[in-house]
Amino acid sequence: MTPLLTVKSITKQFAAIPIVQDVSFEVYPGEIFALLGASGCGKTTTLRLIAGFEKADAGVIAIGERVLEDKKVHIPPESREIGFVFQDYALFPDKNVLENAAFGLSRKMPKKERHANALETLEKVGIADLHARMPHHLSGGEQQRVALARSLATQPKLLLLDEPFSSLDTGLRQATREEVRGLLKTYGISVVLVTHDQEEALSFAERVAVMNNGIIEQIGTPEDVYRQPKTVYVANFLGKTNIINADIRNCVAETPFGFLEIDYPNATDILLSIRPEHFTIEKNVADTSDKNLGRIIAREFKGHDFTYRVEVDGNPYFVQTDYKRHFQVGDKVILKPIEAVVIENKD
After folding, report:
1. 62 pairs with which residues across the strands?
2. HEC sequence for the chain
3. With contact defined as beta carbons under 8 Å apart, do 310 and 335 qualify?
4. Nearest to 209 by CA among 221, 199, 197, 200
5. Going residue by residue through the chain (347 aa), what tens digit of pLDDT does each one get?
């Protein structure tokens, strides 16, 4: 499939400090793609480069065969056929919902036609009945829908979302996310989402690029980046994990919890990532002195599950169980790994 958006080796510096470094990725027609990373990693700058709000120092940005950015070309934002939903929604406080939604439409179009098109888009995002309200009379979720309608009304080829759910209450965030995702898939529009929220990226996007210090460390499906992290940063950023040193002989890794079969050639001093849910945990009823004997040193109840910190041979490890698996601080337990991933070869 031919990509809709191509970003190739883009670089951006501010005051001689590299913010985006040799970043490359593609977004395909109808795909939702997420740029995920901590604050200051360069993800929003990358989004602004795609939109044309910033000019790249190097690299190429193209929509289909049309080059938007290279050494000689810089197409202005209003001519890129790209929609942008800002983190704070950027609604005009002196304009009502309909006027805000119609703002991006061409002034060459008669006002009546602009408003008719905007109203149709408001109907599609489910807030046509609010068309006469002012922004300050709207909830956060309603303001977001107005901002989304304003971008969709222009029928962009690509939609850019900058932390679109971060200002919503926790209870509203998931429901809004699901509704917006369904709406975007109905439109069949390509989307680039910027977020620092791991759960948001994994649940909303079809592919995820994890950024760190201006570079992309890994691109893949949500399942791939979570279950097969390639670097320590990716493994840690996408949720709790346990990083351990191990040697592998004949596809068997020797770990602090015993031996584990693993599909990897012989290697010494490699790093393994074991997710908290990839352990079995049992009470040490017989009070054995097995190598994988541990002791519960902390526990956290989260309703649907428990996360325990278990000390084994003087080192703490995270273990996650369902809500039925009750252990108390001080309990002696036996840990056994059921799955691990090699994330880095240190040799």
Report:
1. 6, 67
2. CCCCEEEEEEEEEECCEEEEEEEEEEECCCCEEEEECCCCCCHHHHHHHHHCCCCCCEEEEEECCEEEECCCCECCHHHCCEEEECCCCCCCCCCCHHHHHHCCCCCCCCHHHHHHHHHHHHHHCCCHHHCCCCHHHCCHHHHHHHHHHHHHCCCCCEEEEECCCCCCCHHHHHHHHHHHHHHHHHHCCEEEEEECCHHHHHHHCCEEEEEECCEEEEEECHHHHHHCCCCHHHHHHCCCCEEEEEEEECCEEEECCEEEECCCCCEEEEEEEECHHHEEEEECCCCCCCCCEEEEEEEEECCCEEEEEEEECCEEEEEEEECCCCCCCCCEEEEEECCCEEEEECC
3. yes
4. 221
5. 899 999 999 999 998 899 999 999 999 999 999 999 999 999 999 999 999 999 999 999 999 999 999 999 999 998 999 999 888 888 889 999 998 988 878 777 888 888 998 898 898 888 889 899 998 898 888 888 888 888 888 889 999 999 988 877 777 788 888 888 988 998 899 999 999 999 999 999 999 999 999 999 999 999 999 999 999 999 999 989 999 998 899 889 988 888 899 888 888 888 999 999 999 999 876 655 555 589 999 999 988 899 999 999 889 999 999 888 889 999 999 999 999 999 865 54
Residue identified by tokens 């309200």 is 133
Q: Say which amino acid occupies 51.
A: A
**Gyration radius from the chain CA atoms:** 24
